[in-house]
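Problem: given the chain below (259 residues), write out its structure.
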Amino acid sequence: MNTTYSKQEEKEISVESKLRALYELQTVVSDVDKIKVLRGELPLEVQDLEDEIAGLKTRLINLDHEIKNLETSSNNKKIAIKESQLLITKYTEQQNNVRNNREFDSLSKEIEFQNLEIELSEKRIKEFTSEMKEKEEAIVTSKKLLAERKEDLERKKAELQEIQEETRIEEEKLKAKSEKIESFIEARLLTAFKRIRKNARNGLAVVTIQRDACGGCFNKIPPQRQMDIANRKKIIVCEYCGRILVDPKINALEDDALN
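Solution.
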């Protein structure tokens, strides 16, 4: 009778130790997850800033190229105006030597056409000048933004480097701790833990009961099942999400099995 009781007690303690080890392991790996999330966001921010800076540099090059093209187009129109003015002078002089009205009218149409060409060229020059002004303003804005983004990048890089140095040591400690805890968990149970964790939201494979519900999916847990979980005599999973359930006081006890 005493022998049977001793084995039963050993079995109960063993299950409880496993549950506590699983909960402790979940706590440790969750801390590792937080570190990875913190570190994982900064590289993305750095990459985004580098991409934006590259885009701004390309934009500045393109704006400069566009302004030069506008200047060339504007100069070409100025040349065209001078040519039209020369033709007007030429046609006006020719009108003084025409022999009939038809020649005079023909020259008048040419003069009228050249005047229209001058008006059109002057209009285009104004448009080019306006576009150049807009692009010059865009260059000033882009240069200012580029300087700001470069400062942001340097700050983020320094922050990332600092966090990497700090979290590297912390992560190594947590990894060593998790390996120690894993040594107390049988392979089959550990494999199940990792599988659940991989498929679960936020990497939570072990959760406590919160307000009479699963701490993972928040579905209600029947009172009798809560009692079974609190007894810690067997490993119980949530029938809705498959997470391993433990009572909220699981971490309040001293874990002799891990010391």
